[in-house]
Structures are given as structure tokens and as C-alpha cells.
Amino acid sequence: MSASVRARRPATPPPGLPHITPSAHKYPPSLSRKDDLDADERREAALKGYGPTRRTHAPGGLKITSAEWKLLVIVLMVATFVRLFRISKPNSVVFDEVHFGKFAARYIKTRYFVDVHPPLAKLLITAAAFLFGFDGNFDFKDIGKAFVNTPYVAMRMVPATLGIATVPLAYLTLRALDCRATTALLASLFVTFENGLITQSRHILLDSPLVFFTALTIFFFVGFSNEDKQEPFTEQWWTWLVLTGLSLGAVVSCKWVGLFTIATIGVCTVLQLWLLLGDLRVKPRTWARHFLARALCLILIPLLFYMSMFELHFMILGSSGEGDAFMSSEFRQTLGRGMQDTYADIALGSEVTIRHVNTQGGYLHSHAHEYPGGSHQQQITLYPHRDENNMWRILNATVDSYPQYDYATQPIEYIKHGSRIKLRHIVTDKALHSHDVRPPVSDVDFQCEVSAYGQAGFVGDINDDWVIEIERGDESDKESSKRVRTLRTHFKLRHLNTGCYLFSHKVKLPEWGFEQQEVTCNKNAVKKNSLWYIETAEKHPQLPVSAAKVNYKIPGFLAKFLELQQVMWTTNAGLTDRHVYDSRPLTWPRLRRGINFWVKDHRQIYLIGNPFIWWLSTASVLAYVLVRGFLILRAKRGYKDFENTKVVKYDTLCGFLFTGYFLHYFPFFLMGRQLFLHHYFPALYFAILLSCAVFDFATSALRPKVRLQIAAVLAVVAIWNFSKFSPLVYGDPWTKKNCASAQWVKTWDFACNEFLDDYGQYAGIQVPTPNKTASVATIGGEPGGRAPIVVVEDEQPVISEANTAIPSGAVAEPGRDVFAKKVKSVPGGARAPGAVDEERVFSVVNAEPTTDMPEKEEEVKGETRIQVQKQRQSERPVSVAVEEPPASGAKVEEEVKSEALTAATPEGPLGHEEALADQVAHELYPDRRDVPGDVDVGVQEPGDDV
Question: Which of 38-52, 230-244, 468-482 has the lowest mean pLDDT?
């Protein structure tokens, strides 16, 4: 039997509106609105695409009283206090602030970088940093590193402010969906006291802006849908629709997860168009107007907004930076270090640089270092920067006499398909060589080692001979497909003796190869990894002064935009490494585990949700699925539940929110990349709204007072849960006992042993503040006596265990840190330990491209609480300022060693003043008594568990 609906007499119209007949049910208007037009008027309205009536209504369906606005202001003040409470603590880097703070510094320095996320949220954070005077010099290198001269509070205020603004959006969205004020208030309180959302919004992270713009998009779309039910194509209708499109552009410009929000709006829009198509009162022309309006505002506007963010991104990042190596050579020409025009013709005797096509790993490179195994001959690698060790001379392999190197007087002979050549490394005077020896890393039968072999005056042997095989040329240069032309011809190099092809891939050599890319000779080579091209060519003696020159084509915005999207996609898909705190989507609704953000000074910040809100929202999602399935089964048996306006209202309401939840949650099951609990936050927002919609339905038959009492109980339980876990939100003191009592689930692994036994013990702990010097002692200086001697212990940087990949004394070389290390080539000799290159900053695309980064989310995220407990040490670096790429040979090596020796403590007995200073230093710092020389050892930080 169908559910009965009690008929009610319409209320008396308010004065001045005699023709308005209020509906018995506000939602959905198209099903319950009373007709107040005659048949001809209704027909005319339908032909124009209007609903069955035209009456005054609140904009966007927001019928909010003045008392509600006052209540909402109070809730907003509470949310502001909760999210801004002690936001300056801790005064050190927390979790992914390592990445996003660093990106803000790159923006201010205009140094190009690559990140897997679009730029909007990072630009907002950068704007706050810039307005408050950030100079970009703080590097955000390690978790726990104290901020110095950095407006980190202003930067944290950006996500915090957007987190606060999410609270009223939850209220207004549910009110626009025709839920009761009590329900909307409950939802705003749930969002206010959700621990995970609070923690994420208090730091320099991107998820709070993402959730805000997701909530804003849903609010605007609900308002537009309400306008669409009343009267389409009005000024208010267009306003809500355009705002929805702009918000869609903003959400996808924060993170690509915003694509799920676009999918949610897209599904609902398709459903709207489908229902309009089935309405026979709507003309095809009117339907086409609906379609074009939505396509314009919900597709074109978001796309233009998204692209404009990247245009701003490119405008700011106009200088070369650490992200260069991820981009094509053409792209790099726009970053302030464009290449000079180079000669187009290549002949025997030409001096050239040869670049790999596919991996963008760099140039064919050699340096005066040998393989530790195999042939023990000189290394051949790919190096990502321009350097004189990339220079090769093309020789004729068919001539056996060494003096044939002089091509100044010989007729010019161009390099063609099938030309047999030798490649002579100019700096070390050795030939590109291969033989039947397994390479040191890719040790398989079909791979052969490639080395540099020979000496001055030695003509070489057949293992130095290579055959040019032209693969393709440029369509604009017909000659480039017949003979090798600079930048235009892609070719393969086949080894004459073994038949293998010169090959490179993203595999890197170990530290002895400075983690540069491996070059081999592959008998089963993939073609795309066997292609090379010549990037630069010096003037051949036989070429005229007016010889043709070429250069890279400078890409426009669209080409740069598309290339960066591809790099972001490839890099994002490559984030497959396991992380100590990563998790899979199946565990998120159950809140199985959180994320350790920060541990220091016997305090911890640990991302974990409010268990009550989290589990209640999950239960509501399951309840909707079960009830919806039950109603479908009843409909199959002939029951007419869906003719009940109350059922239709809540089915439409909950179905919309469930669609948003599903489309923001299920796609993560399809991803193989690294995932974290915070990826669930947009879906959690929908789940919270759905739980309140279920509450609205469950209490719909109760008196308002009883409904308010139930909501109050739910809110109190939620606030109690928030209070229980608040020390993990704010990094407040906590006791081991209270911490252990809060571990309700055994998989919650916050570090209870890090806390002290009693709150009183925290009174004696002073949190250190960053200073240039930790301690100063002065001896001497008496009148008529010896000169004063100042003993200073420099503050030691906090180094994450996860980032200490370079052991003490190791050579810092390319590839160690894909996004932050400053390194350069070693042209002719080893570098001094600890030498730092202040000029070259680059990234190297490795087998699994980086993040968070881009970038591979740096290993600093892997800092566990156990690693934080360890005492950290660092070795004072010897800075060597280099303005230009270093020259090869022993000269640079001697200069670097000289710098290192100059900084070292001289051997032999100390002078009187030095000995006295050393004694005082030992008395002040007994933990350093056994440290010889002038080596700085990291002082134990408060909270370190030695």
C-alpha cells in the first residue's frame, strides 16, 4: 500500500503577496509546488523553460532567519578559536611543510620547480609569505628545523582561515538542501571539532584549501539547483552557475583530487539535463540553451581558471631552478638560461655535445673516475647540466693513423646514415668504448659496459667504432633526415663489434658513480631509449663564417602547459614507494591509523580524526546504502514508497551527498600510488553532511525540543572526543598514562613513550628558540693582560635521519636529493668532502619520479618517531663558491682540497690562548670532550632520546 500523506490547508498569504500559495513540502519544488497559474500561463511558462510556477523565493533557497545568522557567527567564533589556538606552536617545520614551505621559497626566489599539485594553494601561501616579508632564504629542509626569519604563522594562517570558512559552508549547504537549522548547526559543530581537519588546517599544507573549495563548490551548486527549480536564465541563476564554475576551477587548481568534485557536479548536471530532456513541455531549443549554459560555466570557465593559474605560475618562476631536469630542452630555454645559437652542420672533426632523447637525463658525459668493477675503465654517464665534460669530437673510424685528427685542411665530410665514427672525449682524450663486459648495475647478458678507453697518441681499436643510424629528421629541415644536423636529427649509435646500441635509462649508478644515470650498450635495446641528438656544435674549421645556425624552438604557453601536465601526471603515477605512514583506502573509513607529523620536546603532533564523528559518518554512509537497497527491493514488490514526498526528499538529499562521497572515495582504490589518510578528507566532508542528513530524517517526526536535545548530546560527545585527542592536535604536553588510555585501537601508533609521566615535569623543560649562537664564553681581556678569547658553540642544524643518505666524509654528488641538493659535475677529480655548490641546483628524474615531490615526497616524510629520538649529528661543510661550471683536471681538485685544509684545525701543539680556549670549551660542553679537532658534533636537543 502507498504511504498516506496528510493534506494540510495552505497558510494565509502574507500581506502584499495575495497570489502566492505556499507548498506543503519545500523539497523538491517540482514535485510539491501548488499551481497558481491557469493552463495557458503554465503552458507559456513551460515553453520558456520555467517551472510550473513563478513566485518569489529566497536566493539559492537560503531561507535563514536573523537568529540563525547570529548563531552562525557564534559558531564561527568558536571555530576560529579552535583552529588558531597556539598556531605559532611548534615553531619548527612540521611534516609536509618541508615541501610546501620550500615551494613558497622557490616562488619568492623565482626558481623553477616541479610539483605534482597545481599551483593555486601554493600561490595563496606564497602571497601571505611575501606580504609578511619572507625573503625565501629559509629552506624548510627537515622536519623539526626551527624557523628563522620566516613568517610561518602568516603562511599557516592561509589554510587555517580556509578551514574556518568551511564551517559556515557546511551550515549553509544543509540549509540550502532544506534541512532543519538544528541539523545544519550539528554539521557545523562536527566540522569545527573534527581533529583531523583541524590538524591539517593548522600547518602549511594543501588539504585545507582543497576541502574549502570542495565545500564552496557544493554550496554554489546547491544554490544554482534551487534557482534552476524556480526560474532558469535569470540574473541570480547565472550568478550561481558562474560561481559554481569558478569554484570548480579553484578546487582542481589546488589538487588534482578536485577532479572528483568536477565528476560529482558533472553527474548531477547530466541528471538535470536528462530530466529536462524527458519533460515534453521543454522545447529542444530551450534544452539546448540549458546545455550550452552548463557547458560554458561548468567546463570552459573551470578550464580557463585552471590554465590561468599555470600562466601565473610560469610568470613567477622565470629563473632556472631545481625542476629544470624534469622539463624538455625547449622548455628550459624559457627559464633564463637559453642556449646560444649553434652550428647546424655536423662533420668529421666537429666538437659536439650529445643528448639523450627519452629520459631527459642529460648529456653523454665522462669524467676522470673509473668503474670499481668490470673493466675498471673510465666511467660514462648521463649528466643533466652543461659542462665541458660533455664535449666530444667526432672522428673518422676508417682511418688508422692518429694524426688524422687534424681536419683543418681536409675537405669537409658530413655525418650521414651508416657513417662509421669514433667519439673522442675532449677533456680526458679517451674514446667512447664498449666490449663484452657486463655493466656494474644492469648486470644482464644483453647489456654491455660502456667506458672511456685509451690515452693520448693511442688511435684505439675496433671496440671504439660506432655506426650512425639516422632514425628521423625534422620536417622543416629536409637535410636532417639525410645527414646529422644539430637539434634536428635523432639517431642511434650501433657498436660495430658487438652490434649493441648505445643506451640509457632511468637507472642510476651508486655513490661511486655520483648517482648519475647509467649508460650501457644494449643488444635488446628499446628504441626510445636508444635515440640521441646533438645539442651543440662548435664551428668546424671548414665551415664558412656565415654557416647556418639553429636553436631550440621557444614554446608558447600552451606547449609549456601541456608538457607540465604530462610531467605532473608521470611523476604522480611514479610515487609508488612505500611510506612508513601510508595507508590504503579500505582502512580510512574505520580510522585504522593516523600520520605522525612531528615529535620533539616530549610532544607530538599526530594526524588522527575525531573517532566519534569519523565512525558516525561511516555508519551513516552504510545506513543509507542499506536503506536505499531495502527501498529498491520494496519497490520491486509493488510498494510505492517513492511516491511519498518525504521519502523522495530525503532520498534525493542523501543520494546527492552519497554521490559526492562515493566519487571522492572510490577512485583511490584504482590508484597504485602512495596514499595517506588526508586523502580521505574531501570524502569525509560529504560523510559528515550525510550523517547530519540521516539525523534530520531520523528526528523528522520528533518535537523540535527533543530533536535539539539529541543534537546537543551528539555535539557534546563530539567535543569530548576532540578534547580527548587535542594534545595530538596542538602538540601540547600529555602524560604517558593519558596517552595510553586514548589508544582505543591497537593500530593507533602515536608515540606514548615520548611523553612524560606527569604534567609537572614539563615545567622544567624550556623549548629552545633559534639563535645564531647557542652559548658564548669569554676568557681573558683583563687590563694589561692577554687579549680576550671568545668561545662560541654554533647552533647545530637538526638533520632528519631520513635525509642523512650522505655519510660523514662522503662526496656530495648529483642525484642524491632530487629537489633540494645543490651539486655539480666533477670534471677532473674528486670533490672535497662537504663541498657545496651554491650555483647549480637541479633535479634528476629517477626510476620512480618524485613529489610532495613532484616530486617524490622527500624521504624526510619517512622520519619516524624512532628516528626523531636518535641524536643527530652534522659535519660543518666547507663552502666553495662557484660562479661558473668548474673546469676539469687536477686544478679544481687542488683548489677544493686547499679550501678544505684551510678550514681544518692545524696539526701540532696549540698556542697558549688556543689551549686555554679549548679547555674552557671542554668545561662548558663536556659531551664534546672526546671530539678531536674542529669537528662540530650536534648538541643533544631537548626531547632527544639518546
Answer: 38-52
869-896 mean pLDDT: 37
pLDDT in tens, 834-850: 333 333 333 333 333 33
CATH number at residue 545: 2.80.10.50
Same domain? 149 vs 282? yes
Question: Using alpha carbons only, how large is the chain's radius of gyration in Å?
Answer: 34
Q: Is residue 804 part of a domain?
A: no
Same domain as 175, residue 275 = yes
Cα 573 from chain centroid (whole Å): 12
**Structural domain total, the chain:** 2
- 532-537 and 879-880: which strand pairing? unpaired
Distances (CA, A) of 19 to 14, 26, 34, 48, 350: 10, 18, 11, 21, 91
Q: What residues contact 427, with CB distance under 8 A and at least 6 apart? A: 366, 367, 388, 389, 391, 827, 828, 888, 889
Q: Check residues 405 and 878 and name the one with the higher pLDDT.
A: 405
3-class SS of residue 517: strand
> Residue 768's pLDDT band (boundaries 50, 70, 90)?
low
Q: What's the length of the chain?
A: 946
pLDDT of residue 475: 86
- The verdict on residue 670 lying in a domain is yes
Q: Are residues 376 and 491 in the same domain?
A: yes
Closest CA to 346 of 552, 535, 554: 535
Q: How far is CA 302 from the centre of its chain?
A: 21
Does 115 score more than 60 pLDDT? yes
Let me know whether 473 and 371 are in one domain. yes
How many angstroms from the chain centroid is the CA of residue 277? Answer: 42
Are 359 and 498 found together in one domain? yes
Confidence of residue 455 (pLDDT cuts 50, 70, 90): confident
Q: How confident is the model over 610-663, as pLDDT tens digits?
A: 999 999 999 999 999 999 999 999 999 989 888 888 999 999 999 999 999 999
Beta-sheet pairing, 532-537 with 549-550: unpaired
pLDDT digits (tens, 9 = 90+) for 337-360: 778 889 999 988 889 999 998 887
**What CA–CA distances, in Å, run from 390 to 263, 357, 381, 600?**
48, 15, 10, 46
CB of 218 closer than 8 Å to CB of 173: yes
Which of 670, 705, 727 terminates a domain? The answer is 727
Residue 600 CB coordination number (10 Å): 23
Q: Note the pLDDT tens digit of each residue in 163-201.
A: 999 999 999 999 999 999 999 999 999 999 999 999 999
Q: Tell me 746's DSSP state.
A: T
Judge whether 853 and 114 are in contact, CB under 8 Å: yes
Both 588 and 666 in one domain: the answer is yes
Burial of 663 (0-12, 13-18, 19+ CB in 10 A): buried
Do 374 and 466 belong to one domain? yes
What pLDDT does 407 receive?
A: 75
Helix segments in 637-753, DSSP class H: 645-665, 681-698, 704-730, 736-741
CA torsion sign for 770, 772, 773, 779 is negative
In a domain, 290, yes or no: yes
Which residue range is the domain that position 689 belongs to? 66-311+584-727
269 and 359 assigned to the same domain: no
Expressed in angstroms, the distance from the first to the final Cα of the chain is 74
**Any domain includes 650:** yes
When the pLDDT of each residue in the chain is averaged and rounded to a whole number, the result is: 79
Domain boundary among 551, 568, 596: 551
Residues facing 495 on adjacent strands: 466
Residue 775: which pLDDT band, with cuts at 50, 70 and 90?
very low
C-alpha cell at 358: 627519452
**β-bridge pairing 490-495 and 466-472:** antiparallel
Q: Are 135 and 149 contacting, i.e. CB atoms less than 8 angstroms apart?
A: yes
Q: Which triple of cell numbers denotes residue 917?
A: 680556549
**Could you write out the DSSP letters of every residue in 476-499?**
T-GGGGTB-BTTT-EEEEEETTT-
Residue 837: per-residue pLDDT: 38
